[in-house]
Every structure is written in structure tokens, then in C-alpha cells.
Amino acid sequence: MDSGTGEGSTSFTDDYETFISTTDVDLLKRAWRNEKAAPEILQYEAALVHRIKEQIELAEQNVEASEADGEDPLTMSLYQMDLDRTQFLLRSYLRVRLQKIEKYIFHILKTDESLNRLSDEEQTFAASCGDDLRAHLKETVLSKLPTDYNSELKQSAASEEDDMVPAPRLDSFVICKARQYISGLDFEPEYSHEITEMERDLLTFVCYKFIKKPLENGKIDLV
Amino acid sequence: MYARKAYELVKELAQCEKGHLQQFNEDLFNQVIDQCTQHFLELQALFRKKQEENVAMETRNEDHYGALVHHLALLRNKRCLMAYVYNRTETIRSLSWKVGFELFELPEEIQEKLSLPEKNYFGKHSAALQTYMADVGIDLNVDMVPPKDPYIKVRVLDDMGEGILLSNKTANLARHSMHFLKRTDAEQYIARGLMEELIG
């Protein structure tokens, strides 16, 4: 999903009003909510984060400039509060992502799909995070175990798959709301029996993997 | 019963309140490791016996199942050991978010509970986090709760010395004194238990 244009292509035609009144902060709030509620890591909103960072910088300059001009303290405090809230959103968004990377580090490092969703900085972080954890596990446990049993990914050399990697549970349930009417075509064909359609703005309690695709296409928000 | 010791190890972990750490149980841990070595020796002995008796490896005789039991016991032990260490690292990682990046910032009580490799791991992981924050140019360790008001009232709980810089102003933060500070300035001290927020 391309972050910058996703908003325009979906709601431009049917709801021009919401389109022009949607600010980057709203978009960030949405990305943050989705990220918080989704069990797995989602696509990094590179363009959005970049814009927000610029806006924060601009707002900081404005606050400083009006402070120097002797602007009314109450107005100043309101500006500051608004700025603080945006900063909190951004920090929390990045934080939630890092914590997910920490939690599912081995899974993310071995699946390209997840790895490609990270920003460059996050990939660097993931690489060193994985190395550190592997080194620590090796030092405390694995180096003391017999050969054939000393992998951090497999239980023993006899396991065919990596069966010791904590992975996000895609079959956990989430609460979501469709941004528009979603027909059967928007879902993965393999789940066509479980889920057929979703009304707009209707709160739904559903298994995450069923709505993974429309979520990635920006048609659903998690709550 | 095989793998009972490992079970005790995990039980110790489970009984501990979430986010808290107990002393790394070196003694029990090493006992489980020894058991693993023992299982492996017996496993190999059984395989050798089969070879000497010229029985094909696939034959399902009593030695095969004996070896299987040792193999499974070993796996169980390994999983328990890994769970013990892995879950502790999760708590350790949360420390660098909640308390601070440097080992000396952690209260004594917590430092005592960590084993030497765990201390090293904490240091390395914190360094990775700091590198990330430097790359992005955003400090992620402030603003842990959504801000209601940019300013909060705090009470200083410990002698922090003079001359601490808060938003380019020095402040005299004597013990028990109360201050009205920017939330972002105060948060790091609250996390380290040097200040408390006054609510209401």
C-alpha cells in the first residue's frame, strides 16, 4: 500500500469532504491504531512519517517564534499541547513497531515479507537485535547443549521446519471497521467461505487473517 | 521423571509476576544442562548398541523407543531452558524501555537479579536501540503516556544535586521539593524513581 496516495484513491470519489479535511495527523493516528491492534508488523508509512517530521519541525519553529514575539501564554500553551500530541503519536507509532520487531525478531528476519515492511533504520535495528539475542541464547543455553540440538530456530536437527520461532498469531481476533462497503472480491479467495461482505462503518469482531488483505489496501481500519 | 527439573525452572518463571525478575537460578539451570548431556550420552549409547548388534537403524525394537524417550526428554529440556532464558530477555528488554539504557541506571535490586551474560545482553540491546533513535533523530524514551497537559506537578524523591538542565534552564531539585515541569523533562526522572507525579 502506498501511504501518501492511499487516502486519495479510496475516498476521493465518494467523499470529497473527508478527503480535504484529512490531515497527516489523522493519517498518522490511523496508522498508529492499526499498528497497535494488528498482531503482525504492518508496512512502514515512510512518506507519512517524513511529512509529519517536517510538520513537527515547522510547528516547533512557530512556537519558538511566537514565544519570542510575546504571544499570549494561553494560546502558546495550546499550540504546545497540539505539538506534544503529534509528537506522542509519532513516538508511539515508532515504539510499537520496534517492540513488535523485538518480540518476533527471528520470525521477521527469516521472512522476507515482514522484513520488507521495515524502514531502513528498522532493518538495521532488527539485524543487530537478532544478532544480540542469538549470541545471548548461544552463550547461556545452546553452546552447552549437544550438537544437533544447538539451533535457535529448530528443536533438533531432526526437525524439518524451524519449529522454535515465536511468530505473530494471525488467527487472533481483532475489532475493525470498514471504511467503505467491502464485497467478497476484496477478501482472499481462500477465506470466501468465512467472510463474504462488510458494511461500511460497522464494528466487526473478526479473525485477523480474514481481513489482512483489505487492511493492507486501506479499506479497513482496526480499532 | 525426566525433565522434572526443567519443569521446575519454568514454573519459577511462571510464578514470577509479569515484568518482574527473579535471581537467575544458576544452580537449577546447570542441573538441567547436565541432564541434557546425560540424555545425549544414553541416546548415543543406544545407537551404538544397535550398530554393534547389526540391527538396521530403522528397526523399531526396544532400543529404538528407548532412544526416542531420551530424544524427547532432551527436546523438552531444551524448550524449557530456552523458554526460561528467552522470557527473561523479554523482561530485560522492557527494562531498557521503562527504566533506562545504561546498566548503572537500573536500581541495585534489579542488577543483582541478572546474570553476567544478561547484563551484557542488556547493554548490547540498549546500544542497538540508541543507534536506531540516533538514525531516526527522535528520542523514543520520553512521552510514554499520552500527554494530557504539557506541564505536570512533581515531587523530588531523592537528592539529585544541583545544576540539572531542564529545557535549557538549570533547576535546584532538592529532595522533597515540588516543581512544575514540562512532562518531557520530568518523565525520565519519574521512570528512574527520582521523582513522582502529583495527581489531583
Automatic annotation (TrEMBL), chain A:
> According to its UniProt record, where is this protein located?
Nucleus
Grouped into one coarse class, the protein's main location is nucleus
Keyword Magnesium assigned to the entry: answer is no
| InterPro entries documented for this protein | GINS_A, GINS_bundle-like_dom_sf, GINS_Sld5, SLD5_C, Sld5_GINS_A
The protein's matches in Pfam families, at most eight in alphabetical order, are given as: Sld5, SLD5_C
**Domain GINS subunit stretches:** 70-139
Q: Which domain of life is it from?
A: Eukaryota
Instruction: Identify the residues that the record assigns to the DNA replication complex GINS protein SLD5 C-terminal domain, covering every copy.
Output: 168-223
Q: Which UniProt keywords apply?
A: DNA replication, Nucleus
Q: Name one GO biological process term.
A: double-strand break repair via break-induced replication
One Gene Ontology cellular component term attached to this UniProt record is: GINS complex
Q: What does it do?
A: The GINS complex plays an essential role in the initiation of DNA replication.
- Belongs to which family? Belongs to the GINS4/SLD5 family.
Protein name in the entry: DNA replication complex GINS protein SLD5
Automatic annotation (TrEMBL), chain B:
Q: Which domain of life is it from?
A: Eukaryota
Domain GINS subunit, residue spans: 49-136
A Pfam family this protein belongs to? Sld5
- Write out the entry's keywords from A to Z: DNA replication, Nucleus
Q: What is its main location?
A: nucleus
Instruction: List the signal peptide residues.
Output: none
Keyword match Nucleus:
yes
Subcellular localization is given as: Nucleus
One GO cellular component assignment for this chain's record is: GINS complex
Q: Does the keyword Nucleus apply?
A: yes
Q: Which residues are in the DNA replication complex GINS protein PSF1 C-terminal domain?
A: 148-199
Could you give a single Gene Ontology term from the biological process aspect? DNA strand elongation involved in mitotic DNA replication
| UniProt record similarity statement | Belongs to the GINS1/PSF1 family.
What name does UniProt use for this protein? GINS subunit domain-containing protein
Species of provenance: Linum trigynum
